[in-house]
């Protein structure tokens, strides 16, 4: 019998690497093999992608609904009982306390179809405004800054393939060698082609080791660093005055703000020596083409939006955005972090990246949904604010694809708020730390067991294909919403408006997104299969739009099909007047500066063998062997003052909690800073320490900097 090979994509990070899956002998698992035809990874896979099938095993994943018993334990139950319990718990909270007493929390790993259906379910069936998702913790600051500068947020406004062909890249707060290893080749090829790489990171990471210049600022000072570089660009006459005049607005105020940040002042704030600042400006301005790329480092701050704006200002002042092989971009983190925020599971957005407060947007989407626009609730709380309101204003929560007990800031407090709920329902692949607290847990399908679309960090919409059948007793999230709509939606067969077939959901998503900033209306499953993905915006022939680059000549019969938009802003920006907006910003301190009681800064991040909260990767033996647990990375001088040796347990204490993990002593980190990865629960939970101080624009918490003290743990 001939083996069936399914071409699909990895379930983890925003690269969405292509891979081939072949069913194993048991018919339930799959074997991964190289898929060289997909241009993003060209066959390369990291350890997480290679071992992803391990989580398909019934030995590590959920295969039956679980319901909290009278004795307080989770026990297996039928689907009918579990769904009825959810309807009772959610419906009871809504009846007693109002629609906004029910919260919905989604995830950046959900497919576009699931994210779309979840947002629709919250607003149409539940009538609640209280919906947000864990992508708020990922790149919301970059999204806010990109939106106000360019009028549109798409992580990368150009394909990854442009990176090796530019002249210089400033990579700010990103460590792709560990977070998305197949992407590192683009930076390696950049250097092989004669380009240069500048890495901005408080730690000398595996990525920073590849850099031509490594700038190691104190955590939380990236804003001052960008302003100092812009000051030097102006002072040395390296601005692109023609570009500024013809393609931007707001330069005068932005220049004035930058000139208040002279190099010596910036050195005192950041710790980056003035000669390095001057060298970075020379390297960035010398070549014809250059890029600035940001990631979680500058974004996960209480001033993250302004910090990203400062880096965008640097790119604009030197004439980079909207030109070939140049510009600003953001490296999205989660698998569908881009698509996940485009179609309605974010508190303030409707499908197609429309604003929930826009009357025209509400009217368009309401017509697709067959409801009165006035019936749609307004914007609700952001992710952390929603979690903080659990058990008080919000009495019941439906959670899909997220594990905030591990991933949220001030995690012990969030865990306490979750425990205080009247009712919690969780849909997940595994029994995560959050699912363990639920009243009902529903086992749902995962990547290789379902078909659906995701949108990678380039804005390339992709088709994940089903390769194997799920175990008996497992259903898809779309089936869950279909069944809950029947129980909670009142009269008129509401479940018919929530189909379980993903392609049917996508066809509705196309209509809902038509004419919006993230227009998917010209994209079909067939095109995705035939073209290896399509870049949005891609309007349908019925929704014409000017592409941002000329389409290649084609046969007359194909002329009406929009080719998609790999490169944005080549002709104009997505603002009313087509010009990019400079945004004047000034340095301000982190929300919690070190003091005598808490004299050290903590920053958090990831390691190559684990992913996000670790709920899935911590169940894979090979990955656990490579990264078995948390650690505290600290400089030898700090370790000496503490009296700690390599491997000794060290307690890290903040105003919010305490975490204990083995010491990892290295000169690759600043002496005033410690680092912890955030993938683990228990006593080594890094997010027990982190500060939920929120950016005023993006509502992003300050994961990247908080004051702590270290304590030796004696036997």
Q: What is the straight-line distance between the termini?
A: 61 Å
Indicate the proportion of strand residues.
15-25%
Biggest sheet features: 7 strands, mixed
The total strand number stands at: 30
Give the averaged pLDDT, no decimals. Answer: 95
Helix/strand-derived category reads alpha/beta
Estimate percent helicity: 25-40%
What is the CA-atom radius of gyration, in angstroms?
Answer: 25 Å
Characterize the structure shown.
The protein is an alpha/beta fold and 715 residues long. It is built from 23 helices and 30 strands. It starts with 5 loop residues before the first strand and ends with a strand.
Offer a concise description of the structure:
By secondary structure, the protein is of the alpha/beta class. It is built from 23 helices and 30 strands.
């Amino acid at each position: 019998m001939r083996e069936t090979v399914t071409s699909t994509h990895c379930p983890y990070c925003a690269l969405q690497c292509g891979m081939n899956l072949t069913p194993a002998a048991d018919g339930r698992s799959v074997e991964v093999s190289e898929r060289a035809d997909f241009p993003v990874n060209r066959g390369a896979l990291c350890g997480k992608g290679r071992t992803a099938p391990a989580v398909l095993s019934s030995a590590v994943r959920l295969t039956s609904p679980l319901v909290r018993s009278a004795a307080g334990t989770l026990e297996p139950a039928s689907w009918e009982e579990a769904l009825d319990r959810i309807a009772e718990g959610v419906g009871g909270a809504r009846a007693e306390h109002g629609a906004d007493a029910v919260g919905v929390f989604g995830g950046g790993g959900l497919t576009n179809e699931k994210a779309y259906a979840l947002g629709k379910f919250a607003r149409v069936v539940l009538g609640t405004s209280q919906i947000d998702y864990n992508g708020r913790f990922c790149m919301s600051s970059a999204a806010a800054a990109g939106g106000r500068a360019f009028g549109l947020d798409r992580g990368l406004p150009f394909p990854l393939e442009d990176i090796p062909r530019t002249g210089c890249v400033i990579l700010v707060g990103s460590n792709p060698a560990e977070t998305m290893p197949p992407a590192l080749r683009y930076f390696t090829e950049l250097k092989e082609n004669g380009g240069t790489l500048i890495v901005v990171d408080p730690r000398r990471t595996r990525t920073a080791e590849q850099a031509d210049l490594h700038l190691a600022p104190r955590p939380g000072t990236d804003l001052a660093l960008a302003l100092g570089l812009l000051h030097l660009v102006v002072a040395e006459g390296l601005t692109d005055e023609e570009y500024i005049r013809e393609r931007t607005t707001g330069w005068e105020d932005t220049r004035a703000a930058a000139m208040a940040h002279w190099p010596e002042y910036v050195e005192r704030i950041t710790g980056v020596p003035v000669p390095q600042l001057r060298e970075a400006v020379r390297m960035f301005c010398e070549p014809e083409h250059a890029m600035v790329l940001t990631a979680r480092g500058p974004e996960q701050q209480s001033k993250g939006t302004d910090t990203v704006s400062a880096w965008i200002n640097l790119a604009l002042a030197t004439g980079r955005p909207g030109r070939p092989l140049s510009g600003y971009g953001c490296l999205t983190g989660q698998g569908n972090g881009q698509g996940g925020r485009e179609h309605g599971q974010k508190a303030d957005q409707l499908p197609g990246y429309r604003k929930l407060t826009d009357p025209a947007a509400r009217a368009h989407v309401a017509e697709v949904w067959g409801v009165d626009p006035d019936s749609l609730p307004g914007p609700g709380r952001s992710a952390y604010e929603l979690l903080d309101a659990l058990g008080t204003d919000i009495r019941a929560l439906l959670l899909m694809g997220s594990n905030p007990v591990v991933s949220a800031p001030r995690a012990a407090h969030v865990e306490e708020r979750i425990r205080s709920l009247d009712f919690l329902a969780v849909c997940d692949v595994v029994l995560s730390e959050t699912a363990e607290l639920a009243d009902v847990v529903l086992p749902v399908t995962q990547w290789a067991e379902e078909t659906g679309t995701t949108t990678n960090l380039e804005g390339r919409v992709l088709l994940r294909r089903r390769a194997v059948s799920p175990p008996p007793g497992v259903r898809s999230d779309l089936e869950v919403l279909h069944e809950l709509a029947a129980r909670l939606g009142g009269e008129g067969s509401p479940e018919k408006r929530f189909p379980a077939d993903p392609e049917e959901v996508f066809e509705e998503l196309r209509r809902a997104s038509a004419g919006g900033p993230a227009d998917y209306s010209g994209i079909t499953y067939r095109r995705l299969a035939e073209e290896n993905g399509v870049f949005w915006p891609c309007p349908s022939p019925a929704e014409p739009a000017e592409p941002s680059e000329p389409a290649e000549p084609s046969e007359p019969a194909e002329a009406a099909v929009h080719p998609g938009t790999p490169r944005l802003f080549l002709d104009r920006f997505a603002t009313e007047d087509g010009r990019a907006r400079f945004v004047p910003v000034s340095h301000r301190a982190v929300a919690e500066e070190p003091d005598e009681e808490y004299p050290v800064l903590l920053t958090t991040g990831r390691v190559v063998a684990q992913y996000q909260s670790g709920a899935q990767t911590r169940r894979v033996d090979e990955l656990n062997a490579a990264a078995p647990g948390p650690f505290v990375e600290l400089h030898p001088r700090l370790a000496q003052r503490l009296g700690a040796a390599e491997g000794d347990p060290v307690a890290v204490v903040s105003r919010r909690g305490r975490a204990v993990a083995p010491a990892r002593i290295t000169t690759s980190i600043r002496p005033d800073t410690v680092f912890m990865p955030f993938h683990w629960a228990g006593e080594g939970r890094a997010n027990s320490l982190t500060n939920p101080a929120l950016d005023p624009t993006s509502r992003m918490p300050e994961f990247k900097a908080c004051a702590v003290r270290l304590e030796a743990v004696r036997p």
